[in-house]
Each structure stands twice: as structure tokens, then as C-alpha cells.
């Protein structure tokens, strides 16, 4: 038996033999013919194109595949074959042996106070109360949050801090294997390093096994012992395309990795170039037709509060924002996590009411609907300003990919001729009958973009449009959006992706933290 390391952790081993999983309602397996051995204490970076089944494997190891409605159907609708074992036992039989951290920091925060959130998992494993709080303090120290009081509000944490909080909750459970599903996808560069370094410290202390899914290799390459690349779909050769030490894999299989859509360090995929008349260097003032303008905007997601008979306005996360959205031009919104980028984007898109200042639409965009997008009816808004949320699931309304794409055009009375093009360009053709909730993270993102584009809006507001994309689908999406810009659409992107911003060009709105904005 593997010895227990510091922190009471016994590293876990993984064995897969011919393992396959088909999600409910899907004609083909997400993973098929997986043969894989991971030794206890080993650190593995799991790569592969979008849709190769990486997240499916992690969810299986966490023991959460197959629950009722876990993948869009009733329990029993899914198919599993072969074997997948942790220390010789099925993962579902020993939940708590694996700890899973996912992409979105917001969705993993459960409780309002720091200490309670870290304790939650250990409490559900029936750890004795006295031991729980010892574990909580140790875990917070391990991830670099030990300086904060236990009653610190989780809502006041940055994105990187929330991911480290999620990691602390996992560590307090003392799992033998830590599973990370693109844990830095939604983080600013500082947050990426915070999370990676916290993971490294925890592994050095506990010796736990690590399996991390990430499209971009450079962040994790020096922290892992091994790279395993999965290939999508059924294959006579099995699910594993490449397996070996990081430097050897990157040196000997570089071209194969690039063809597979892996983000190889130093390689940026080729994209369509903007038309010379429309392309502007980042930061250049635009000259296209003005469509939307924000003037001295203050933004917040809070609702007005009442104190007795007095109505108090929301506390803004950012103030004094001015920006212009012009036809045929891109506006990129950048800044650290917690600076209010997404809140600003939702306000600009007419989905949140400004705390102060105004968002105004010109006649070219409003076409008689009025100057204030927040007051437009739903059908007026989606046909003029299309919004892609940071979490794709927040905008799905049907149980089938094709129905999702047809929903907007049918309700607006538009033609459906663009749907086939969107399916092909965004690599969704083989998924038309799938439930949107069973898609991979990258596929969900592409579907959320496609559903908005199907309504033919003149302004696109995209929140982290490239997260979860392999290099191939990233290039296709960036190229498609550059075509739309050349055709006269306006694109507003909230993103940490500098390569993506460079492809689209246009102007940049850099937002600092609220403290910086107030100074």
C-alpha cells in the first residue's frame, strides 16, 4: 500500500482498461478504448483537442458521472464499458478519494465565509469537527490564504483567490488524487501563477497524485512528470495518442501535437487577417459608424437596498467608464479578475441597469427602438446586441444543439440559412442531436457563440470567448469573428487572451481594480 505522506494524504493510483463512456443522448462515446496507468504520486498533464473526452475522464475519476441528470438525461441513459479504477476500486465507490476543481471560480464557492467554505467538503465526509478546523487552517496556509480571517467574505475574493479557496476545500478532504479541469481558464495572468504555484506547494507537501487538464502547455509543463494526449472519437489505436515525459513529447511530437490542436509553447496558430481597411492596431481610435456609447458609467450587479424607508443605490464595482462601440471595429476589455469587466459588458449589452452614467444606442443600431438598450424588449435586444455569457450554460434553453441554434431565428422570424454555416465553421455538425449540457467546455463555448450569431445581431458582446478552445478551434473562432468585423459588425470582447486581441485589433479598454479606479 502507498505510504501516507505529510498532511495525512495517501496518494492514489489510476488504472483504465478499455474504458469507454457515452453520454446520454449521444450516438458516439466521449471516450473509447482508454488504456492508461497513473502511478500513485505521479503528476500528469492531460491534453487533446476540444471534445477528446478530457473533462469526461476527470468527472469519471471524481465519481460524478452517471448520476441522475448529470449529463442531460436520466440515470441509466449513459453507457459505460471497460474498467476505470482508483486503487483498484470504482471511483463512485470511494468518493472523497479524488478532489475535482473546475474552470469557473464563481461556481465553486458554496458558502459566504472563507472558513465555512473550506470545511464544507470535509464535513460531508463526516470528518470529526475538531479535526476539520485543524485541516481548514492547514489547507488555507498551504494555498496562501492563511492570512485571511475565517469569517472573511468569499464574495470579496478575486478570481485567483477563489480558485485557491476551491483548492483549499479539496485539500481539507485529504484526497489521494487532485483533478484540475482547466483551473486557470478564466483567470488573469497573475491569478494563473497564483493557482499553479499553490498547486505546486500542495503537491510537494502531500505527494498527492495530480491529473490536470489544460489546453496551454506552458503553464503546467514544469510541474508535471508526464504528458498524455487523448484523441477524440472511436479509434482502433485507442484513446491515447501520445504518452511520455514532457520535454520528450514536446520535442519529438511537436508537429503531431500542433495538428491535434494542442497549444504548443511558442506556436500561435495561423488565422485569417483582417481586411486592411477595417483592421486597426490595438489602441487606435476608431472611425467606423458609432453604434453604442458609454458615458461616465458606474456598474454593479447588486440590487438597490432598503434601510428603513430609505432606498440605497447599489455599490458600484467600477465607475467613470467611457467607451465607444463602432461598426466594423473591435473593442477589447482587459483587466484583472474582480475589476468589473463582465459587469461592464452586461451593462453595455443592455442586460444590467447602470448605477450612474448612461449607455446610449445611436439610430443606426436602435432603428426606432429607443436610445436606452436596457429598456428594449427581449426581441429588440437580441436582434441588435448579442451577448455570450462567461458561463455557456446560462444561455441554453433547449435540450438539443440544433434546436438551440434555431431558437433565435425562429422567434425573430429570421431565415435559418446561417445555421448550417455556423455548425460547420464552429465544428458542431456532428453534435446536432446532442444535449447542450453534455458537450465539452470548449464545445459549449462554441455553441453559445453560434446561438448568438444565428440571430444576426450588429453588436456582439463576448465574455471570455476563447476559453476552453484548443488551438484549432481558437483559430477558427478568431477568423470567423474577423470576417464579421470586416462585414460591418462590432465585437466587444472581455478577455485575458492577448493573441486573440491581436487578431481582432481595434481599441482596448483597460480596467483596473476598484481601488485603482478610485485613486
Question: What's the SSE blueprint?
Answer:
Layout: E1 14-22, E2 31-38, E3 43-47, H1 54-61, E4 79-86, E5 98-101, H2 114-124, H3 129-142, H4 159-172, E6 177-181, H5 189-206, E7 209-213, E8 226-230, E9 240-244, H6 246-252, H7 254-259, E10 290-299, E11 305-307, E12 310-312, E13 318-326, E14 330-334, H8 341-348, E15 356-361, H9 363-366, H10 378-382, E16 385-388, H11 401-412, H12 417-425, H13 441-453, E17 459-463, H14 471-486, E18 490-494, H15 498-504, E19 507-510, H16 514-518
Parallel strand pairs: 3-7, 3-8, 5-6, 6-7, 14-18, 14-19, 16-17, 17-18
Antiparallel strand pairs: 1-2, 1-4, 8-9, 10-13, 10-15, 11-12
Helix pairs in contact: 2-3, 2-4, 3-4, 4-5, 11-13
Task: Give an overview in words.
This protein is of the alpha/beta class and 519 residues long. The chain has 2 domains: 14-259, Rossmann fold; 290-305 and 313-518, P-loop containing nucleotide triphosphate hydrolases (Rossmann fold), CATH 3.40.50. The protein is 30% helix and 21% strand. A 6-stranded mixed beta sheet has the order 5-6-7-3-8-9, sandwiched between helices. Strands 16-17-18-14-19 form a 5-stranded parallel beta sheet, with helices on both faces. A 3-stranded antiparallel beta sheet has the order 2-1-4, covered by helices on one side. A hairpin with an 8-residue loop joins β1 and β2 (31-38). α2 runs parallel beside α4.
Amino acid at each position: 500500500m502507498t505510504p501516507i505522506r505529510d498532511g495525512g494524504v495517501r496518494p492514489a493510483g489510476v488504472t483504465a482498461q478499455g474504458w469507454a463512456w457515452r453520454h446520454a443522448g449521444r450516438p458516439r462515446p466521449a471516450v473509447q478504448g482508454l488504456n492508461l496507468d497513473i502511478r500513485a504520486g505521479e503528476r500528469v498533464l492531460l491534453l487533446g483537442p476540444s471534445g477528446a473526452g478530457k473533462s469526461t475522464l476527470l468527472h469519471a475519476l471524481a465519481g460524478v458521472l452517471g448520476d441522475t441528470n448529470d449529463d442531460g438525461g436520466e440515470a441509466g441513459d449513459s453507457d459505460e464499458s471497460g474498467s476505470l479504477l482508483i486503487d483498484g476500486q470504482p471511483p463512485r465507490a470511494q468518493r472523497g478519494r479524488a478532489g475535482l476543481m473546475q474552470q469557473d471560480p464563481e461556481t465553486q464557492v458554496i458558502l459566504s465565509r472563507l472558513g465555512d467554505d473550506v470545511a464544507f467538503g470535509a464535513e460531508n465526509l463526516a470528518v470529526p469537527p475538531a479535526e476539520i478546523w485543524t485541516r481548514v487552517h492547514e489547507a488555507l496556509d498551504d494555498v496562501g490564504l492563511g492570512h485571511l480571517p475565517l469569517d472573511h467574505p468569499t464574495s470579496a475574493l478575486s478570481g485567483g483567490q477563489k480558485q485557491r479557496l476551491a483548492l483549499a476545500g479539496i485539500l481539507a478532504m485529504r484526497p489521494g488524487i487532485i483533478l484540475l479541469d482547466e483551473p486557470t481558464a478564466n483567470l488573469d495572468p497573475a491569478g494563473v501563477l497564483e493557482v499553479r504555484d499553490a498547486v505546486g506547494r500542495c503537491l510537494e507537501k502531500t505527494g498527492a497524485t495530480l491529473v490536470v487538464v489544460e489546453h496551454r502547455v506552458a503553464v503546467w509543463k514544469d510541474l508535471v512528470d508526464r504528458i498524455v494526449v487523448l484523441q477524440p472519437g472511436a479509434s482502433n489505436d485507442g484513446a491515447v495518442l501520445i504518452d511520455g515525459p514532457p520535454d520528450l513529447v514536446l520535442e519529438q511530437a511537436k508537429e503531431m501535437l500542433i495538428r491535434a490542436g494542442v497549444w504548443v509553447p511558442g506556436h500561435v496558430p495561423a488565422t485569417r487577417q483582417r481586411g486592411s481597411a477595417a483592421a486597426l492596431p490595438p489602441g487606435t481610435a476608431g472611425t467606423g459608424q458609432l453604434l453604442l456609447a458609454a458615458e461616465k458609467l458606474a456598474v454593479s450587479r447588486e440590487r438597490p437596498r432598503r434601510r428603513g424607508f430609505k432606498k440605497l443605490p447599489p455599490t458600484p464595482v467600477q465607475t467613470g467608464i467611457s467607451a465607444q462601440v463602432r461598426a466594423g471595429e473591435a473593442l477589447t476589455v482587459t483587466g484583472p479578475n474582480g475589476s468589473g469587466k463582465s459587469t461592464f459588458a452586461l451593462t453595455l449589452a443592455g442586460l444590467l441597469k447602470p448605477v450612474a452614467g448612461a449607455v446610449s444606442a445611436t439610430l443606426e443600431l436602435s432603428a426606432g427602438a429607443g436610445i436606452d438598450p436596457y429598456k428594449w424588449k427581449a426581441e429588440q435586444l437580441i436582434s441588435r446586441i448579442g451577448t455570450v455569457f462567461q458561463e455557456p450554460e446560462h444561455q441554453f434553453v433547449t435540450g438539443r444543439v440544433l434546436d438551440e441554434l434555431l431558437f433565435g431565428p425562429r422567434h425573430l422570424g429570421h431565415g435559418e440559412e446561417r445555421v448550417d454555416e455556423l455548425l460547420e465553421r464552429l465544428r458542431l455538425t456532428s453534435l446536432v442531436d446532442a444535449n447542450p449540457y453534455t458537450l465539452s467546455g470548449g464545445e459549449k463555448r462554441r455553441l453559445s457563440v453560434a446561438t448568438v450569431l444565428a440571430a444576426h445581431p450588429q453588436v456582439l458582446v463576448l465574455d471570455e470567448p476563447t476559453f476552453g478552445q484548443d488551438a484549432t478551434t481558437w483559430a477558427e473562432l478568431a477568423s470567423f469573428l474577423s470576417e464579421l468585423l470586416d462585414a460591418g459588425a462590432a465585437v466587444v470582447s472581455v478577455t485575458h487572451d492577448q493573441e486573440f486581441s491581436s487578431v481582432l485589433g481595434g481599441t482596448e479598454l483597460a480596467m483596473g481594480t476598484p481601488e485603482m479606479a478610485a485613486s
